[in-house]
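look at this stuff:

>
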Amino acid sequence: MKEVELQNSLRKLRFERGELTQEELADKLGVSRQTVFSIEKGKYNPSVTLALQIAVFFGVRVEDVFNIKEEVK
């Protein structure tokens, strides 16, 4: 059975955009800093709506922020 993992480049995007802190990004997205932290660490998968908000905020496609890594188990 294949197990999938959602990977993201959120931290990289934050630093490419002027070293935006987790708190600053959270404020702009209307979520908690803990939510941003958890997404970056792969401990929380955002809703489709939040994933789209993140992509729009950074001016990129959702696929530029999130991608799926498949592992065969």
In short: The chain has a mean pLDDT of 93. The CA atoms of residues 10 and 40 lie 6 Å apart. The longest strand covers residues 2-8. The chain is about 50% helix and 20% strand.
